[in-house]
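I am writing to request your help with a piece of structural work I have in hand. Here, with my thanks, is the record as I have it:
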Amino acid sequence: MTDRDEARRISQLVGGALLLLVGALLALQTLGVLHAGSLGDYWPMLLVWVGVTRLLVPGRGKHVASGALILALGVFFQLDRFGWIGVSLSQVWPLFMVAAGIVMILEGVRSRRSQAPPSSPGAASAGGR
């Protein structure tokens, strides 16, 4: 199985689990068990889906920080949609900008390190003999 196939499989699993969760909550609302809001209240789950997928897909090690940031944004927006947090986006958006900047720098540094040539010319050829 190629990395692309594995990425698609993981994305389908995560997306299916999130659809199952949202569908179950809305079904419970229809039955009068709880108040789950409307379908439009769940748009942040798309960010959660992308973030979790970026964290779980193999071969994407350099995208862990951005996956975590996207996941955190999705969770924050979802909690905000339900009124479960006492902080508004207008108060914390600068922190998300700082976090995004840090993530970009870390991924740039990590990418640079992975592209760096071996430390000594003999080290690369020694493994081939």
About this structure: The longest helix spans residues 3-30.
